[in-house]
TrEMBL record, chain A:
It comes from the Bacteria. Belongs to the ABC-4 integral membrane protein family. LolC/E subfamily. Its main location: membrane. One of its GO terms (biological process) is lipoprotein localization to outer membrane. Keywords: Cell membrane, Membrane, Transmembrane, Transmembrane helix. It is found in: Cell membrane. It is a multi-pass membrane protein. Residues 272-402 form the ABC3 transporter permease C-terminal domain. This is ABC transporter permease. The chain crosses the membrane at residues 20-39, 271-294, 325-350, 370-392. Pfam families: FtsX (PF02687).
Automatic annotation (TrEMBL), chain B:
The chain crosses the membrane at residues 24-44, 273-296, 316-342, 376-396. It comes from Pseudohalioglobus lutimaris. One of its GO terms (biological process) is lipoprotein localization to outer membrane. The keyword Glycoprotein does not apply. Pfam families: FtsX (PF02687), MacB_PCD (PF12704). This is ABC transporter permease. InterPro entries: ABC3_permease_C (IPR003838), Lipoprotein-release_system (IPR051447), MacB_PCD (IPR025857). Keywords: Cell membrane, Membrane, Transmembrane, Transmembrane helix. It is a multi-pass membrane protein. It is found in: Cell membrane. Residues 23-235 form the MacB-like periplasmic core domain. One of its GO terms (cellular component) is plasma membrane protein complex. Belongs to the ABC-4 integral membrane protein family. LolC/E subfamily. Its main location: membrane.
Length: 409, 410
């Protein structure tokens, strides 16, 4: 057994350059895969957490019909009390109640339809990254009543500045006429025009008064520290609201169905690329092994004539491939780990990424996911496909006739 | 020389087939690589095209004219009079294929149940039609008959949120130039479906003349949208419109109107090239290896040829030619395969399973791969240039062999 391994090892180095080139192809491909996969997974984490932190949170309690149609009358009764009991049950601070309504906002000169969100000023900063983005004026305070924070584009369109007054006209929960006046205390400029155009936040108590909501609201929003704690939290909260059939607990996938799908479609197109790279490397290995079998036809003929079975020869070739693939795997893992380590320290960015980042609500630097999966998936798959590629050359050995082989040119 | 090079050309071709298995495996590898390059770039091109086209259908048009303050302050105050004189003349002649003047103001729409903030579009259907800016599909009722139609057309998603339906009345409210709220009740005459649900919720269509009357703005409009067919050619004809519009109006191309779309387009070209180079690099290991093997088995033969007086440059030439044949065959196979696989898909791949995710990227539910000759050309150039560069090393080594040693090699 030992002799066969030794033979296989030596055979590899009869053509040192060829072996290194083949191993090089594997290592290069491994590094590419490690690079792409780890950044890909890392960027998904970032995308999910950033998007959720912006508005929706990790889970929400809503009226069953509210998600689809966002109608005013689909409310959560006693929303603040419910939010408090959710906070107690989950043991996390980041739980807040919200209400929302469409209204016509008018300044002295301009009118626009806006989506008003009633928030709890002290709790909202914990569930959403939005309050932290106020860059002129201040965010809402606990003692505010008729104060409002709006997006920069909306402020420009309405031609109001800090201290300006906005009048709101809309309809209340019972269909009655609703009107109120609020003073602009803060302006948010996230740089994401779509958000800056629509944000308008007012204190929940004032919101409930103006829109005749009573103690109703539209959502309890929860932000959790980790994505993987979501399912457990969902079932806890479900237990809390079990006595009210109209309420539903939605996790982040239900709140932002686009997010998971965007990730899936991105993954699908990336897998295609990975598959192509792996197939190309497999071809390269196939060629090398085929060459090394063909050029040794005479040698194999002699060995067969001396009584070595074709099975043993095939095993020899398989061992050569295994050694070569293991070399590729080892080097790939080693350099891949170095690469991930470097990227996790330095981050990664490319030209044009800032615009993409603004659009998809991500940071302007990507960090890789540091995990065994991200590191080992690519190299291991290359390893497996390399072994598969060597089957054809090894099978040829069974068709070898000793006499004809020894006479081969 | 020409005789010698012809002989070398024949030699290179025959050498290629001396070890046909190796050549076939390599051809398979190059073919797969080239196919993948073109296939992936056609998918990417299809996605970007779709994003840009969707974006342009919403804008709409490749060039728009506004009052200079309109974009910062999209209010009815910043309207302009209907085009006349030079501008009208420029709009009526080629290459402009379609143009439409529209009223576009922010508004609130209220049903008896609920209300929403929307963008109200006062359109002239006969002018919008050729611009391709009308809703893709009317699911109930009809679209507006003409600019004087007194009804409104809502998106299906908006109608559901407002809890209203075909034939019901809704109230539209907006602001007139004196800052008073102008409103009118209108009957919902049609419900449309758009490729992107967010558009369905944002845009409400009404007759242009009716809106002008409601807002009291005479024949003034907010926006003139102009199209000439190919969005990639806009730089050629935009200057004529700018000149005709004069200094008092702002004329912008879609690249200025939607910087993100424009940067997507640039990014796509860069991405395609990177993709091709990456695929090629993986391929190149195999290519160099194959060629190095081909040289290795022929060391004695090359030594003999040199001893017989063949110049090293001819040997270099012969090996590069051999590599070129291989690359060209692989390219032909890959391009053919790409053509055969992509053409049937160009009618569209259904991706509605991930529709909402695609919508985040501004795309619809169908992906239309676009096979562009630029991508085929680019992959060909990348493969030939980089392929020959990669082949230089083994070919160079072969050309510099010492004849005596080479001949004695066992």
């Amino acid at each position: 057994m030992n002799v066969t391994w030794l033979l296989a090892w030596r055979n590899l180095w009869r053509h040192g350059r060829r072996t290194w080139l083949t191993v090089g192809a594997m290592v290069f491909c491994n590094l590419l895969l490690v690079f792409m996969i780890s950044l890909q997974l890392g960027s998904y984490q970032m995308m999910i957490n950033n998007s959720l932190a912006m508005v929706s949170g990790h889970l929400q309690v809503q009226h069953g019909d509210f998600m689809a149609d966002q109608r005013m009358r689909d409310t959560v009764p006693a929303v603040v009390a419910l939010s408090d009991s959710v906070r107690a049950a989950l043991g996390v601070d980041a739980v807040a109640a919200r209400g929302q309504a469409f209204a016509l906002a008018s300044s002295d000169d301009r009118s626009f339809g806006v989506l008003l969100t009633g928030v709890q000023p002290t709790l909202e900063p914990q569930v959403s990254s939005f309050p932290g983005l106020v860059n002129r004026g201040r965010y809402l305070r606990a003692d505010d009543r008729d104060a409002i924070v709006i997006g920069a584009v909306l402020a420009r369109n309405l031609q109001v500045d800090l201290g300006g007054e906005l009048t709101f006209l809309g309809s209340g929960r019972d269909g009655s006429f609703a009107a109120g006046i609020a003073t602009v205390v803060g302006i948010v400029d996230t740089g994401i025009a779509d958000l800056d155009r629509v944000v308008a936040q007012v204190p929940l108590t004032w919101f409930q008064d103006v829109f005749t909501m009573g103690d109703h609201g539209h959502a309890v929003v929860v932000r959790l520290p980790e994505l993987d704690t979501v399912p457990a939290a969902v079932s806890t909260v479900q237990g809390l609201v079990a006595d009210n059939d109209s309420l539903r607990v939605l996790d982040w996938e239900a709140l932002q169905p686009g997010l998971r799908q965007a990730i899936q479609s991105d993954m699908a197109s990336n897998w295609f690329m990975y598959a192509v790279l792996i197939v190309l490397v497999a071809f390269s290995v196939l060629n090398t092994q085929l060459m090394s079998v063909l050029e040794r036809t005479r040698e194999f003929g002699v060995m067969l004539a001396l009584g070595m079975g074709p099975g043993r020869l095939a095993r020899l070739v398989a061992m050569e491939t295994l050694l070569m693939a293991a070399l590729g795997l080892g080097l790939g893992l080693f350099f891949g780990a170095l690469l991930i380590w470097y990227l996790s320290v330095a981050g990664f960015t490319y030209p044009g990424m800032e615009e993409m980042a603004a659009r998809f609500n991500m940071g302007d630097r990507m960090y890789p996911e540091v995990s065994l999966l991200a590191l080992a998936w690519g190299p291991t798959t290359v390893f497996v496909f390399t072994l598969v590629a060597a089957i054809y050359p090894a099978l040829r050995l069974f068709r070898l006739e000793p006499v004809a082989a020894m006479r081969a040119a | 020389m020409s005789g010698a090079s012809r002989v070398v050309a024949v030699l290179a071709w025959r050498n290629l087939w001396r070890n046909y298995r190796r050549t076939l495996v390599m051809l398979l590898a190059i073919g797969t690589g080239v196919w993948a390059m073109i296939f992936m770039s056609s998918l990417m091109r299809g996605m970007t095209d779709q994003m840009v086209l969707n974006g342009l259908a919403v804008l709409p048009g490749e060039v728009q004219i506004h009052h200079p303050s309109y974009r910062n302050d999209p209010s009815v105050v910043n309207s302009m009079s209907a085009p006349g004189g030079d501008l009208l003349a420029a709009l009526e002649k080629p290459p402009v294929t379609a143009w439409a003047a529209r009223v576009r103001v922010p508004a609130v729409i209220a049903s008896e149940r609920d209300n929403r903030g929307v963008t109200l579009l006062g359109v002239d259907p006969s002018a919008e039609q050729p611009l391709g800016s009308l809703p893709d599909e009317i699911v109930e009722g009809r679209f507006l008959a003409d600019a004087g139609d007194r009804g409104v057309v809502l998106g299906a998603s908006l109608a559901r949120k407002l809890d209203t339906q075909l034939g019901k009345r809704v109230v539209i409210m907006s602001q007139d130039p004196q800052n008073n709220v102008a409103d009118r009740g209108s009957r919902v005459v049609g419900i449309y479906r758009a490729r992107l649900a967010s558009n369905e919720e944002q845009f409400v269509y009404a007759g242009r003349d009716v809106l002008q009357e409601m807002l009291g703005i005479g024949d003034a409009v907010s926006e003139i949208a102009i199209s000439a067919g190919d969005y990639r050619q806009v730089a050629l004809w935009a200057p004529a419109i700018i000149a005709a519009a004069g200094p008092d109006l702002e004329v912008l191309t879609w690249m200025d109107l939607d910087a993100f779309l424009a940067s997507m387009l640039n990014l796509q070209d860069g991405f395609t090239l990177i993709l091709m180079v990456v695929v090629f690099l993986v391929l190149s290991f195999g290519l160099v290896n194959t060629l190095a093997m081909a040289v290795f088995e022929r060391v004695r033969e090359i030594g003999l040829m040199q001893a017989l007086g063949m110049r090293p440059s001819l040997i270099l030439y012969q090996l590069l030619l051999e590599s070129l044949y291989l690359l060209l065959l692989g390219l032909a196979a890959g391009n053919l395969l790409a053509w055969v696989t992509i053409k049937p898909l160009e009618s569209g791949i259904d991706i509605s399973g991930v529709a909402q995710g695609m919508e985040m990227m501004g795309m619809g539910t169908t992906l239309y791969p676009a096979l562009a000759y630029q991508d085929m050309l680019m992959s060909t150039v990348v493969v030939i240039v980089l392929g020959l560069l990669a082949s230089l090393l083994p070919a160079w080594r072969a050309a510099r062999l010492d004849p005596v040693r080479a001949l004695n090699k066992t």
